[in-house]
Task: structure prediction
Amino acid sequence: MDKVNLAQKFELFTDYWSPKVIGEINNYDVKIVKVQGQFVWHKHDETDELFLVTSGRLGLQIREPSGGEERTIWLEPGEMAIVPHGMEHCPIAEVETHMVLLEPKGTVNTGDIQSDLTVHEVPHI
Amino acid sequence: MDKVNLAQKFELFTDYWSPKVIGEINNYDVKIVKVQGQFVWHKHDETDELFLVTSGRLGLQIREPSGGEERTIWLEPGEMAIVPHGMEHCPIAEVETHMVLLEPKGTVNTGDIQSDLTVHEVPHI
Result:
C-alpha cells in the first residue's frame, strides 16, 4: 500500500483526453486526465461519473434528460460534480485542465459513442 | 445536478471525526471529514477505503495483514491512499486535517470496532 501524489502523477504524461488509472477501490478506478478543447457528447447508461478539478477550469455541458435543456456547469479547482447515469454530457476546457475521475472499471470514456477519442485500454501510471 | 465546492462544504461544520456526505456516485458516498488527534484502530473487511487530503497532514497508521508490521503513511494535501479491505488502520493528525473519503454507502467509520467515535447516521450537507 503506497500513497499517490496527484501533482507527481500529472507530471508523467502530456496527452489530452487520455485518462490514466492512479488507484483502485473495489471495482472502481480512480483516474486522472488532462484536457483542453471540447470532448464529444455522450452518456453512460449504467453508471454515474465523478469529476473533480485540480487545476484549470472545466465546463461540463449537460442536457437534462427530461426536456433536453442544455446548460454548462463550470468547475474550478477544488470543485466536483457527479454526472448521473443516462445524462448526456460533453466536457470542454478553454485552458489546460487537470481532473480526477471516478467510475467503475471498464467504463469507456466516450460512453455510448464511438469516436477517435475513445480509449479502450486505460494505462496504470 | 449541481457542482460541489469542497472548501465551502468544509466551512459548514467544525466537529472532528464526523463525516458528512457531499455526493453520491452509484452506491458509493463521497464524504468529507475534519480530523485532529488519533482515531481508533479498525478495519473494513468488505471494502477498500479512499482517503484524499486537502489540507493539514494525515498519518495513516496501518498494520500489514500478513506479519502485522506497523507503519505510518503520511499524506500531505493533494495526496491520497487507498486502504485495502481487511487492513487494520488508524488515522492520526497532529494538526487539523481535512480530507475526502470514498466508500460504499453504509460503511461505518469505525469498521469492525464499536467506539464512542462510531457514527451511524452520516448527514448530507
Q: What stands out?
A: Residues 6-10 of chain B form the longest helix (5 residues). Chain B has a mean pLDDT of 95. The two ends of chain B are 15 Å apart (CA to CA). DSSP finds one helix and eight strands in chain B.
